[in-house]
Records
---
Amino acid sequence: MSVTTLFRGAAVLDAERGELEGDRSVLVVGDRIAEVGSAAEVRPPDPDRVVDLRGRTLMPGLIDAHVHVYVQSMDLSQVESWLPSYLVPKAAKALGEMLRRGFTTVRDVGGADFALAQSIEEGLVTGPRLIHGGPALSQTGGHGDFRSRGDFGGHGCLRCPTIFRLADGPDEVRRVVRDVLRGGAHHIKLMLSGGVLSPTDSITSVQYTAEEIAVAVREADAAGKYVTGHTFLAGAINSALRQGVRCIEHGNFIDDTSVGLFAEHDAFLVPTLTIVRAIQELGPAMGLSGDVLAKSAEVFEAGMTALERAHRGGVNLVYGTDLLGDLQTRQLEELTLRAEVQPPADLIRSATTTPARLLGMAGEIGVVAPGAYADLLVVDGDPLAGISVLAAPERHLNLVMKAGTVYHDTM
């Protein structure tokens, strides 16, 4: 029989409207929310557990839409040297810590696979619901090609082929996209410009042609999936959106044309500020090159400006962090950085209902509503009054439930 849990006396956060509804009861049956209403309306005969929240906030679990759970080091050559028997436990530990912070769903945009997602579903690994895209596609010499300048050996393979795959030309892009989808990917990711950590390309490098992008979009559409693109540059972003790319990762140099195209195509933007700030702060001690540090400074300043432009223009903004290795402990710092631009209600929406739409799971995650998965957080305080309530889980996060199972509880 399904386990039933009754939360009563809660201030329930409606993430879409950005409002609290006081003195509500929420009934969880199995892995779903069965009822939400007043104490008089929600009266189960004999629940297995009753949790009296006494005015605490009950809200949806958070969603991080840009993680890399297999990139457990900033040094990809080190990750490449690890056997799966070592890498997977490291990824599992990181996933468990994400769940403990209140993230009940994450989207991996480069590396995670169906086996890890299945392990979470079966309870072999404790972690958030894992929406995976398999390896990201890169052109030769692009952001996913981490060979050094002097490495011309082999057949053009990448560091960590489970995280990146090379594909050049429409025919090769078509074949690799089909192969990644065969592996159960929920989306396809294309590297559309250079990156901060790329060894051989600049952030101004435009990658993949319109024809190559269009092929990827057609193949994803045919499978009922979508394409997301890594890029900082307005020109590359605008071209990608016109080709049907559904989501943009980073987007630090968007312009007014970009904002209009996001609205026209109902597309999504996932800014990732925390990773760039972390590189600025920790890069010298980590031995990162001067070129990388210079790129990070430029990208961070532009990213804050882009966030303000996108917020003002009503772009579908989604929470994402892009943190690698030990930096993943900074996952909630994205809230603090974005709070300089976005009010708490908009920030919470970006980590709940908006990514739920991107993932095709609207009404199932990111909400406290009948029929949704019972992905719930109990926090001591009002997140709408100050985002610090969510940014400091060690003080304010009392309970984490994912799909009806409690994983953290200090009630």
---
Amino acid sequence: MIIFRYIAIQVLIGLIIATAVLLPLFSFFDLLDQLDDVGKGTYRTIDAFMYTTMLLPRRFIQIAPFIALLGTVAALGALAVNSELIAMRTAGISPVQISLAPLAVGIALIVFIAGLEQFVAPQLQQKAISNRAAALNQTAELGRGLGIWTRNEQNILRIGQMLHAKRAADIEILHLDNTGFLSAHIHAQSADIRNNDAWILRQVIVRKFTEKGILLTRAEALSWRSFLNPEDIATLTKPPESLSPFELVRHVDFLRSTGQDADSYALALWRKAGSALLTIAMLMLSILFIFGSIRSGLANKLVFSALIGVAVYLLDQIIANAGLLLRLDPAFVALAPSIVLILLAIFLLRRVF
């Protein structure tokens, strides 16, 4: 249908314009934040620019719902200002038919974002974090002196520092017996991580706790079969939001199978799904803004939609953090705001149409 394609093209142009406005703005804030670290270690201005550039796909994904809102309002608002929507209505095209074009563009946008989320954004974000940490002489774990902590049924593992993907430093292993009591403590200066999950511990001190006392032994090297593979270790050192959906699913399953808290990773996973729903909600609200106030100027619509977008963004962040603090169900916390907005938009659109 010619009119369907025409509206879809106008909406797509609106999304491109909104991206060209919002993405550089958010990236500028990222750059300002990075410039504060220039001069520390070997971190230079060019590193700050590279870090910001590599975060562009992640920032685009984060602001995509609000790009959809502003872009669609701008596109349909321009059609309304030029009386094109009135002409379409006069020709017998219903508001529902007009709304199908932006919704189709929105679905295409969600598919594009899904591809970025799985294959582009995580890899670039993780590379940016790694490069920045190396330049600042930092590690990506919980903090210097705290290290990375994880466990399974009978072992608690602390990695003080990941030197690189195949080598770690300051390793502690606490082995528990079948009754849950500490039976052995192993400390190693470093560890070489092999692909078959076998670690070669270097400069090792082993303390075994027996009924007769503590038995201490030392060794230059000791083989230890880890319950972590290199991919699991890499995942532990990455922020939850930087992981792809497949990585999050696997890591949440690993944490839960070993009795660990997986809420932050589960929330990050469900928020990726919630972002798609939020994009649909923003598209529906943008349609409501146009048909619900067709007499108001385009500038007023853009300002009002921008305020709505900011309010929704802040509310979504507050709900996510509050849900994590209160230990609410991650799926509910991530999906409920978007579902409420969609239901509200459907209710209001039915009144308008």
